[in-house]
């Protein structure tokens, strides 16, 4: 299709003079049909002049009646041109049954009618009229060319009997769907440019179609084109095609030799030409430009690179999706774990409380119900265990740890290069108490890490920040509000600045730390460290600080640290030396497990002491009871002792003999 007018060749076998071909030509001035059609051979020469007609009218007929002179009929017996006659209806054409060409271009006709008697008509041109519906053509079985461009047609219909149609021009209408043309197996040229099409479909059955014009539509997807065995030229300029996947069926067409995509979003892509040429090796022209062998070779190379890029992109997409699913699984497990902890805490609290009265009856938590909920939570965890329960990922200079199992990665043999580039360590869905246990390893494995991030780590109390003091250096700290209730405390940032004062923190949650913040932190929590150090026993202080802290501790006992001015100087010195303040070091964090161990130890000691005291009390009670009994029995016992003694010494000689005998017996 070119924009140079119309040139047709129609083969016919019923022309009087068969020795010469009949050519009908309409130049650009005679027609506004802006696309090259086909040149049809007719068996008679065309003189090139227009027919002059006279119209008569009758009072009993509402349509104009065409009358031609005998001379005109002889000169142009098989053609009639009525263009630019300001016609609003098709005139009645009597006595012209032999007509083969009829031209109604550039009129105001709104309906096709009064031509059903022209059964030998081969060429019908109704370009640039006001026709809204295709009709009145059922008897024109010989029609080969039908030109209905630039009308108001909204639907393709009533073409069932035009099985010999060779050219169908419907450009410049309001058609939104391709339909009712699958029976036109002789159709070679179909022009649907400048319509309202969005999808190209329903082209099955057009076995003879060689040219399809779809310029200036709203096409975004193409179907069925690969089923057209003879299609050679396809024009898709100025549509909405944005990806090669939308036109993938074109790659399966082996007959296409000329195609246009200019004016589409896809044509703006850098890979456009190379991709099209790679998938359509049989093309000779692309966007009206001839394709060279060098372009084909370059397209093949570029296409291979693009395929590699797509495979890599697909691989990365799969990895990202796997990562997303794993993180979702870890998040669900974390949520289930937190719900279980909350449930256990609730049950323990209910055991300690009295049953509440509801409507006069006591409300209890039934063990069956609690076990049922616990079973549900367990089954949910088992269902999610198919996916990974933790994830370790290095993104640039950030080490991301998802799930408690990710902490085990710190035991790996990290390469020096990888460990050296890690600046940020991010913890997600991990209990803070479990993180505390690996902070020492973290300090050793990644010596350049200066930024810690916490999200969903159950940071609840200010005391937990004390554990971060064992790191060797922290410049930035980020605590996400999600899963960390401590962020809701107003003074948490000031406590962090106070407790981790020796790190010289630069940013907290992305906000730069100022000198005013440091001063405010000291004012708010300075007395806290002093109280903590004052209440701690001396032996605990010595064991806590070791030899390197004893000198500072003795200075503290002498009162040097009690004055605010001297305390400030000490803090400044400690910050300059990069050491931890003596008083701040007394603020430690005890993990839940360690706390539970301590509680168990205290409980055991309490039990031992209670048992020991109970035994002492029991023994004292027994002694007291025996003493009371002795006091009651002693008078009688004393009387009996005196009586026995008197009886024994009453006979002095016998008594002396008895005593001597006892002495002898003892010696023997």
TrEMBL record:
The gene is Lrrc49. InterPro entries: Cilia_flagella_integrity (IPR050576), Leu-rich_rpt (IPR001611), Leu-rich_rpt_4 (IPR025875), Leu-rich_rpt_typical-subtyp (IPR003591), LRR_dom_sf (IPR032675). Residues 291-324 form a coiled coil. Residues 561-584 are annotated as: Disordered. This is LRC49 protein. SUPFAM superfamilies: L domain-like. The keyword Ion transport does not apply. It comes from Ciconia maguari. Keywords: Coiled coil, Leucine-rich repeat, Repeat.
